[in-house]
Protein 1
Amino acid sequence: MTRSVLADPMRSALACWVAMIACGAPGFAGAAAPAAPPAGPGDFVVRDATVYTESPAGVLQHTDVWAHGGSIAGIGHALAVPAGAEVIDAHGRPLTPGLFGGLSDVGIDEVSEEPDTLDSMQNAKAPAWDQQWRPEFDVTAAYNPRSVFVPVTRIEGVTWTVLAPSSGDAIIGGQGAAVTLDGRFGAVLDGSASLFVQLGHDGAKRAGGTRAAESMLLDQAISEARGHTPPGPGSLLHAAGRDTLARYLGGGRVLFQVERAADILRAVDFARRNGMHPVIVGGDEAWVVAHELAAAGVPVILNPLDDLPEDFDRLAATLDNAARLHQAGVRIAFTSGDTQYARIIRQLAGNAVAHGLPWDVALAAITSTPADIFGVGTIRGRIATGRSADVVLWSGDPLEVTTLADRVWIDGRAIELRSRQTELRDRYLGRLKSR
Amino acid sequence: MANEPFPSTYRAPASPPVAIIGATVLTGTGARLDDADVLIVGGRIAAVGRGLDAPPGARVIDAKGRWVTPGLIDIHSHLGVYPSPAMQGLSDGNEATNPVTANVWAEHSVWPEDPGFETALEGGVTTLQILPGSANLIGGRSVVLKNVAAVTYQAMKFPDAPYGLKMACGENPKRVYGEKNQAPSTRMGNVAGYRQAFADAQDYARQWDKYRGELADYEKKKAKHGDGSHAGGKGNDSGGKAEGISSVPPVPPKRDLKLETLAEVLNGHIRVHMHCYRSDEMATMLDVADEFGFKIVAFHHAVEAYKIADRLAEHGVCAAMWADWWGFKMESFDGIQENLPIVDFPEHSCAIVHSDSENGIQRLNQEAAKAMAHGARVGLNVAPERAIRWLTANPAKSLGLEDRIGTLAPGKGADVVIWNRNPFSVYALADLVFIDGAPVFDRAHPAARPRSDFLLGMPGAEATQ
């Protein structure tokens, strides 16, 4: 599979919108819609939903959404139902794009404390200056779509996630990418490949104890990738590593895992000097440099629940981080950062709302904004004609903790709301009630 | 037990009466009262009901549209012993040098400046049990704290709260000591470790019983023979000898701090809180407790409690649970999101939401809400007035403090939270928190909030201004 490492510009997403609005689509035009073609596998119509399109169309009340062949084929009122299509009456319930699970290792790591079940990290077991750096390491090669974590995650309405390499003892942890959680083998989403760099005190530990050495070593790696430093003893990179890093120097998406305000700006400057599109991950102190981030157009993927000075890189952590970043004009997306808790992404968004973030921005932070950040915004993260039928019907407000996913579709395929956990539940609930 | 060596210095601050008017009140006793009032006088709940008269001089709070609950209680916290920032120099939660460290007391590790106390308070938490970590089979004594800003832990210590003993099942002890190539390295090694520790404690208790018996005899006989040796009377002395009474009192056994704590467990003064994920291990521990005649009051992290919900209820053992933690180790692999409502289902059950987390403790209400939603989906409907007990009355019961906190019954300590809405919502925030009737958190007055010494003058200080 070929994957562009170019960061996604919003341009193509907007073009798609213009086309949809200008041309309409079969079945879009309400009661007078022409007879629809026969339903293929996965055809369905959700009737009378409150549709959060995450597009310029905004929120559509009492609206029908028709999916055909895995894509959204129509949005409108009283859509004609193709023969054989499943019809779901939403009775006004919210329909949103499938949610982003944050940066996780769903399908990569299983039981955190069982090393035999973990694949997210390559460990050089050497200090960073003595390592062969491996930016060519691509964690998605380890993805197992049949992991029990996949159904556990997706039945909560999380339909895609970004697999992130754990940094282990490396400053450049390697590459990751977005995957769909429908269980297919070739799950990586085109155009989403990203490079992960660890800065701050975590990176400093690896660089011999000082974050100053991180910059030094990173500059050395860049020099090697640019061919300014010939390979030889003491080289950080192999040929494949040089090639990989060189690709990212031409406008690749690079995620900097970093918390402290000064380190955030350092990462942005490093990316600018090297032609990278930076994304800040973590960013507990990002609000401190919100205006600089806004001016540089750098998005932040954060956990809005981080509010404690967990270490000296995040003394300024606050529950207001998300709201302040948004206010300053920074694009934000959310991540729990944990594989087991990719599914609680809605709770993160809801809490951000409780602490001042506009509700629609919070929903965007777990749908369209991360889709745009990872270059899949023209396919996912929005409900619009021609996009993937990656949608979730909710029992209520999708950001509310008492709400559950009633129905989940990924690329038009209905996801059975079963997982190993529901099997356990049903077994023991049955025993309890039969007593 | 010997007299209390580290007495509480907490004193409830004097505060004027409070009348909270027109709220939806979840009393913690299982009742929900709409458009109701809560009166606080002298730091205690004076009355709960509709149309009450505010006491003279009361601060009257209009709570129309808001919800009132008892203060939340987290029985599993490591605040202070594993504080923020998570620095090596502040990491004091596990005395992982011996699998049985019943001699250590968590309170001696509590750093009162942990900023996590104040963020927990913002989440409505008024009482916490601070536990040693779970590296050891028997990790040491817990301490119950009131969530008030203080310079010493004694000033936070819940007066006369029973001590708890932290014990741990499963993977942690066997991993920690197995890696050191010492016992325990297996679950059977774990159980052998608990049993030997309590067998030693039985022996120790017998020695002290024997000594106390001898001492009582000695004093009885001494009294019978007059003034005794203290009076210096020679005649009495020889008279005693004539009857076979030693002139010297019996020598007490040497105090062993480890066995002393365990003996206090055996005599019921210290309550066992046991970290135990798996249902089979919980069942094993119920048998161990029966063998030695002590009681386990709560299994913590009881990820598999749903498999033995009936048995736990029959034994009157509480299960303290997360809403959705799972999968981080084999013993948490069977976690399900309906654990709380299933455990809550049998009669006489005692389901508790706990955090074990400086983050989770800020949102215990949301954890309960998630579990309610998953329960409702499978027909286990838990109303707010019942679910609030997972955070209040039930944890109070496990701490042995059910007569003092955990409900809004008249006479109870006035630990009260006023929420801006139904607390079982992601949007719910605690507006006001009272401990013993004193306002300790007011969202409307950020400047008056508790603020850890650690955060003063720190670069993040402007965040709250």
Protein 2
Amino acid sequence: MMFGNGRNGKNGSHDKDANGTIIALCGIRKVYDTGAIKVEALCGVDLAVRENEFLAIMGPSGSGKSTLMNIIGCLDTATEGSYRLRGEQVTGLTIDRLAEIRNRRVGFVFQNFNLLPQLTAYENVEMPLLFKGTPARERRARVQHLFEQVGLTDRMLHRPVELSGGQMQRVAIARALACEPDIILADEPTGNLDTTSGRDIVGIFEELWKKGHTLVLITHDAAIAARTRRVVRVQDGVVVSDELAA
Amino acid sequence: MRTLSLIVRLFRSAAKIQRKRMVLTMTAIAWGTIAILLLLSFGEGLKRSLQQGQHGLGESLVIIWMGETEKAYVGLPAGRPIRLIPDDVELVLKNVPEIAGASGEMHNWNVQLVNGRTALNKRVVGVHPAYGELRATYPQAGGRYIDELDQQLKRRVVFLGNELAKDLFGAGDPVGKTLLVADMPFTVIGVLQKKRQMGMYGGPDSDRATIPLSTFEAMFGRRYLSNLIYKPATDDLSPAAKRRFMEVLGGKYRFDPADTRALYFWDTIEQAKVFEKMMIGIEIFLGVIGGLTLIIGGVGVANIMFAAVTHRTREIGVQMALGARRLYITGAIVLESLALTFLGGLFGIGIGAAIVQTLAAVQAHAKSEAMEFLGQPTISVPIAVTTVTLLGLIGLLAGYFPARRAVSVQPAEALRFE
């Protein structure tokens, strides 16, 4: 509310979180200024995601879907527009506050896993808990529980190179869940996996959704998008369609 | 506390990779440390060696030569020569309490010395017994210096410089042997202990024969001193001693105590102060050279840290995505840099100290004059403190700047990095 910047008249209902809205994007623009040329990756995106939605953002490469995910995940800041996460105005927050939001509110799953290679799977999952400041005993129990959830208890002490792609992605999902985030963001989570492993991963996501988690998937795979409950299509920096599954 | 343990954890995880790079960095720092350590140690050694050389003339010594008055005084004209006699030493000691010891000195620079078939023409000096102590001319074991009794009885005894003794008597011990000094038989009572003498007048002490002043007077029929030396009770009293000295002798010989030409002073105390300043200059110079070398090592560390940080950009991006505060990331990088610098420094100090010790041991047995002059390299506490402080500072800076750069980008950008 304090940082409202005049664009929010259009979609006023999203400003309230009473109705379970987790993400409220309003008039988001993102311009990459490389000096010589300015590239407008997002040109006025409005999007609302409510609690326990299972959403796919689709679009061809260069459509701005990754930029959109970065902004939703507080990995990047919008050039213009307002973004509320659970009612909290995110635009204009300090870098360390944003780090805290990423730590506690958002869980990331990346296409290329982004596990730290020199650490064991256990240590990778433990990391967000360390940043959060969870006490050691609680941390151990939590990590143990997470590995049980993704079915990898026998691989906890392996390094990422000793794991298959599917296993790595499951470790990444465990890591994303570590701090019980409000939302899980997955950027092409099956992009580097074979079909079987990919299906398994989407299966895990479905299960999480059934348990009450909110998930946003970025994908260009129609088969995966078909398994979600809502598909948002992005093209040339704008939302072109927003359909609920039957 | 939590922050610290987190930083240590991140540091440990980073330390698991790139061992080779770490070794190279540490080598650079070790090299710089060795350089600064050696330069400063040699500076210290040179300083001590020079100080020692200066003391070869005698510590806190003032030497006076006779001059001519420049100012007319109590009706006497300018241009009168002032000549001191042996009794003036007594007079000065009695009337100038600031003076701790004094001796007269008479020189004859061409006296024939004969031992058997060896004949040499050398300088012979007549002195008071106090001269030995004042001028740091100590006898070798088995010998002695000229004493009061020699002076009172005008004994024909001679104290030889070590080089002169070797020239006259060869390798054998000359003490107790007879030497002809200007055709008169003298007994050798002692030989000078080898010493390094930098300041000198009338040739080095090692190449002269010394006899009691009273004997000298009688033998050569001299009345006047060639010069007079004294030592003030303390260095601080030197100006007061000089003033009183001029007043006492000015009273006796009737010259203005402010007449600077009546007597010439060579004040080694003043000289020592100048020397001290010069040495500080040399040490600063050596320190700066060493410091610059160390800084080059530091630039190496910064460079490698930059490379390491760039290499780990994605990893840092992941950590940021997972919610690492900036402090955790910068802290880990600075810690890494400090650890590298510290380890490198430790090796450097170890190797440097070993080199210094070895050289010092070699020096102790060295015969060459040049090596002797270089002195024994010495590691002192200030050197160690300087080195360690510089190392810490370098480590901090070399880590801080790459770290600041690492966290200055958006996590999204860091994650895109290939």
Protein 3
Amino acid sequence: MATDERKLVDGQIEALFASHPPADTPEREFWGAQFDHGLAWVQHAEGFGGLGVSPRWQGEVDRRINEAGGSTRNRYLNVLGIGMGAGTIMAHGTDEHQKRFLRPMFACEEIWCQLFSEPGAGSDLAALATSAKQEGDTWIVNGQKVWTTLGHLAKWGLLVTRTDPDLPKHAGLTYFIVDMEADGVDVRPLYQITGEAEFNEVYFTDTPIPDDLRVGEVGQGWAVAMTTLMNERVAIGGGVSPRGSGSISLAVGAWEKLHGQDGDPVQRDQLLSYWAEAEAMRLTTLRAKEAAKQGTPGPEGSTAKLHWADLNKAITSFTMDLMGPEGMTYPGGYEFTRPDQTSNRGTSAHKAFLRSRANSIEGGTSEIMKNILGERVLGLPGEPRVDKNIPWREVPRS
Amino acid sequence: MTVTTAPPVVAFALTEEQKLLVDMVRDVLKDRATSERVREVMLGDDGFDEVLWTELANLGLTGLTVPEQYGGAGSTFTELSLVFEELGRRLAPVPLLSSVVLGAEAVLAAGSDEQKAAILPGVAAGTTRLALAHLDPAGRLTADPDVRAVRDGDAWVLDGTAGFVVDGRTATHLVTAAVGPDGLELFVVAGDAAGIERTDLEVLDLTRPMAGVVYSGVRVADADRLSGGDAVAALHRALEAGVVAIACEQAGGTQETLKTTTAYARDRVQFGRSIGSFQAIKHRLAEMLVASESSRSAAYHAARILAADEREELAIAAPLAKSYCSEIYEQATGHGIQIFGGIGFTWEHDAHLYFKRAKSTKLLLGDPKHHRALLGEALGL
């Protein structure tokens, strides 16, 4: 079976490379051809960017493309679509959705964003309030979304709305694909503490969505949204970062530049303590990858996000301390720009320090991560809930 | 300049044989290293659990890393590290660290073929129990220990005091570091040789005895001076292996602490709720889980690097594991007592045994600060 899959994948790679040399084909044209050869999401069915094989072949495909001088940066440029939207559309979308959206998504002809969080629904996503009311074949949307990465570049959005406020909060949700160019959609930059706007606020005022852009049944929005969240990063074969990279490299750089061998012994000990912890954490991701590959995943696979978030904050803060007075500066100043893609890398120690504060908030706060580890990995009981089995309308909200 | 080359890649996954080994050790310890038995031994005069030790020897575990030509199994340190992880979970009071790691590694590195053939088969069989006497009376690792060796014809005469000798009172032989006319030497001295006085220290962790050893005109044949390798390098090798063994033991103790504390947090009810449902408790346990997983990774990596004999990487991996696993074990056992609450502060509960083992092993063979300094040297930081 595995050898059959390998043959199939190899054959498609060769065919793709023959018709579209990776180094010499314009990116979008190449990505489109990659889709046509079933190498976009190999686990998808044929005709939908896949070959119906195990998703573990994707890493191999992407590696070969990179080696041949091609680009796989579409996975970052259109991360919400390719990483999260595609799996959702495959699982819950209609045949028309799949035919219409997947190819331009993969080729980055249409950028996607995700419209889940709201000012009143952060950790408690299911409390969201953006409403959608049906009028014939159209839904009319009103409300506000926030933390919308790529919102200002997106053609399409993955939107969760409340369609029945009288049902308990998880039950009254419905999922849509929304045209970001439709009437009543207002995308505004959300400047963060670095001065940049990686994210946006999106306001909907009587925005119409045709019913055929509904994903899943009315009232099934929560299940569809969970599919989106679970698809996060599955498609990106992300490797383990090299030893000494990331924020610890900024700390080491600051140490070597400003202190070297004559540095303060207390700070030196602290630097090495962080180095050791960063490496122990990196080894844990290696161990987790190996266990997952062998089909025996354990608790080591669940701790990385929490560990990384808290350690990254500590190390970037320590780096500022190492720099002394230079830590009072902000080189380049606060530029109120709207970057094209999400990026935590290639950045100054100063910006990394500020940006890292979000690490323990975005993608699940550290508090929520601890609840998840405590309840799902350690088997501890949950907190008593005051929002279960009562209409969303009656749940207290801030 | 910092080290930027990629570290050697070692697989974490266990082979089927290694899994069987873990199961076997767990089975034995479940029956033999119960809390009652550990307490009986730690409060008795034997100094170690002779019954368990014999059983471990019969299963070949005392000879795991001893080369086959000297009566051992010739396995790698990866296998032995698994045993340490299990011993760490149960706090089993046996002299595996002192004899099979510290003592035997020193003999392997510094002994001549004849000396290894004379000493190691006994170690593998468990009948010879080595202890490494290399620290000064205050427990400091110094290039200039207190014990002196003076040549007297075909023999040597040792005088001085070695401190903090793990399992020093009960060992059949003391691998003794002494300064002779040509620098540091290692002597294998019978524990009951004339002129040796061994006194148990009053130790924090009763499950791991340590002794002070006074040498007063102790005569040792020149044949018992390890003569197959450099003594300083051999000592370094033995200590590096010891550090990795302790880290694995600590990772085992951390996991056990997390396991028992989590079970208690699930069962204990206050204010009408399991206390583990309170985030104040749940979050602390989640933090312990995160740290425990990373301490496992650091310890496993170091053990596999030692097994592969990657010396350059070991200079990074060993001090990293010892410093990190020490800190995490201490934190975890401290949190453990807090979550157990009042019962965790009692003598009858086992939490204090782990807490004491954590603190004691943190300071044994170099504290975290010492090992971070070594790590810094290896990294060029």
Protein 4
Amino acid sequence: MKKIRIGIIGMGRMGITHYSIINSYPDVQVESVADPSGLVTTIMNKYLSAKTFKDYNTLFNEVKPDAILVCTPPALHYPIAKKAAELGIHAFVEKPFTTKYKEASELAALYTQKGLVNQVGYVNRFNDVFVKMKELLDNNIVGEIIRFKSEMFSCTITRSDVSSGWRATHENGGGAVFEMASHAIDLVHFLIGKPDKIMGSSLNHIYSKNVEDAVSATFLYKTGKSGTIYINWSDTSYRKPTNKIEIFGTGGRLLADQHSIKIFMNNENAHYHFRKGWNTLYITDIFKPVSFYVRGNEFTRQLYHFIDCVEGKVQKNLCTFSDGANALEVIENIFKDYEQNGRI
Amino acid sequence: MEPIDKIILGDNQFFGINHMSEEKAQQLAEKFYDINNIFKVYQNAFDAGIRAIMLNSNDRAKDICAHFRENKNQYSDMAWYPSVPYPHKYANLIAEKGIIPTLNEVLFKGNTTIGALNMIAKGGIAVLAKDAMKMMQMLVDIEMKMFKGLNIKVVFLQNIITDLMLGYNVKEVFYEYCEYIRKKYHALPGLITLNMPYLKTKLEEWNITGVVICTSFNKIGYLMSPDVNSYIQAAHNNNKAEYQLMAMSTLASGAIPAKQAYGFINQQNIQSVVFGASDKGHIEETVKLIQL
């Protein structure tokens, strides 16, 4: 069978990880890579067979891959994905997808219209714990959802700005909202749905000058439910990035992180063997192994899913450009709400 | 290949690492904030007959190494199994600054070794790019500095690096790493992986032998890609003269009771177990249960 020819654009941290993972998929050949860094292309030329390019336009012109993984700084995602669509290339684009909702929804429409596979890298949608949580919610395990809390912590930024780079400004997709809160927001969309209104947004600078290091906001829904998000990437008490989500419903309460789901049930559930009161599902109870592991099952699963969609083995993509656009709409509303109401 | 120790005390319990529960991890981090509590655990392990320590090159490992250097007479027959690098240090730096500034900072900032100074004189990172293996060696040396003066038996590459490189399918990286560890540290090269059957197949294909492979091994298949049966099979077919297998995550983060876990492990063709425990009773029990 003819292998799917992949191009990877941007060989930073995510590009390097994705290359390794997707290269392990038997039907795939990583044929080309674009990165402006001479360091990266020099090393790659020496050890790998993929052709390297300094920029994506040359890559498109010279090899025209079947599918691309876009791992550049976020501000470049839009022009790259747009060009790819014109050429009929399927695209996986890292989160936060783009830096503007308008561009994001334009790309979502364009890819749908052309029938091209499109996926955004909200990896939590492929995480064993959160997938299980989604299943539990779909089975109405906590009854009607009333309140939720979606939080994310890490010790990513723990020193004052010294360098600039793309992470220093919102225009380029930097800051805790684009880079981290986007995950927490998408997790809410995945598990609960998109909010109808944002209020009470606040942003804090801890170490960064031009972008926020912490953010919180309240999400309101027409149905009456509501919830909050709180994200802080300068919290040194966390050794590694941690997602926490809590959902309160008429039937009980769910608390989850990447390791476990704790469930308080108002009544027992025979199907899941949950008793009345507290129940715990550990990651060791619910994980599903992947055929090749680099950074967590979810990273492998998300890229294999993308390839399965490109090959037509799977029809419905689990994290489309339209999902990416939804997160960006909420992000813009948080910024807008903060501008209008967040300062005293 | 020189046989490795059958039972090795690991270090996850000291550094607030618990794959099952963040609360448990936090409790451990609090308990071991005082480094003397770490030394007590090592003493208990020593009293239980353990003569081998696996330690990741994180910041606190420096003080642990210093303690054992200072008390060398007491622990003269202790064998060391360092693992490099400390991945979170790099992950956070890279997330903050990007890859090239991170390499610059790690390789050159405050690194006054002659190798590093020469490299800066020649043009630093840009020149180093032409010799990626030299860069790998310098990174290993930086991480290994803290273990100086200890009796080093195996130097392990952490799974995040091993498995990342495995995906790239490049023989040279593995070959050069193994050679460098043998020559520079007079130790066995070690690779930690969560893809043991695949790694072993590749090493055989590349004709790289004399390697210690450390991998998750438990009966529920937790952190074992692709699945538990492939692991059992790969271990069964293994020639220990070529690859010694060391099992980690044997309790699957506490999901399997110790007796059951080692009942399974003892039946496998495995040469060694690394385990993490902080309680005196657990350490003694584990030593009794492991019958390789």
